[in-house]
Amino acid sequence: QVAGRSGREKAGRVLIQTHHPEHPLLHTLLTSGYPEFARALTEERAQVGLPPHSHQVIVRAEAKDAHHAQAFLQDMVTAGLSIGRNLSVFGPISAAMAKRANRYRYQIILQSSQRSVLQQGVVRCVQVGAQHPLKGRCQWYVDVDPLETI
């Protein structure tokens, strides 16, 4: 529930703050309501293969030296891409909060429409991470079906 409470006669007021007021999905939400917005968003996500029409895993790494975290993840990208079939690997890219507590944070995203292929990619990444020469200098973890990818 965004505005108002049940049993109240007075209508609520909702303010939406955005950097993209011209975005077509925002226009759909404001002119056609939530059901049409949800349908349009689901259709758009299907066209570009985003969840729930595919599956994702994020591997995040952080280190005191940015190059260590990047190199650590880049080797995972190479291993993930060696799976080949139906697995996309993106990154490494900076995390939304690129530096926290004097540590640089990066991530890679693995994506596939087939969960079994995604699992193979994750296994390869974990194998690389467990044997990587920089494993002692990086903290890392795997996030399966992440709620946010930023």
Outline the structure in words:
It is a single chain. This protein is of the alpha+beta class. The chain folds into two domains: 9-48, no CATH class; 55-144, Ribosomal protein S10 (Alpha-Beta Plaits), CATH 3.30.70.600. 38% of the residues lie in helices and 25% in strands. The protein has four helices and four strands, in the order ααβαββαβ. It has helices spanning 24-32, 34-48, 66-81, 115-131, and strands at residues 55-63, 88-100, 103-112, 139-144. Strands 2-3-1-4 form a four-stranded antiparallel β-sheet. A hairpin with a 2-residue loop joins strand 2 and strand 3 (103-112). The longest helix is centred in the C-terminal third of the chain and has 17 residues, at 115-131. The model has no long low-confidence stretch (mean pLDDT 91).
What general outline do the C-alpha atoms trace? Answer: elongated
Order of helices and strands: HHEHEEHE
CATH topology of the largest domain: Alpha-Beta Plaits
Low-confidence stretches: none
Mind telling me the C-alpha Rg?
A: 20 Å
Spatial order of the strands forming the largest sheet: 2-3-1-4
Which CATH class of the largest domain applies here?
A: Alpha Beta
Report the total helices. Answer: 4
- Beta-strand portion reads 25-35%
What structural class do the secondary elements suggest? Answer: alpha+beta
Q: What's the helical proportion of residues?
A: 25-40%
Oligomer: single chain
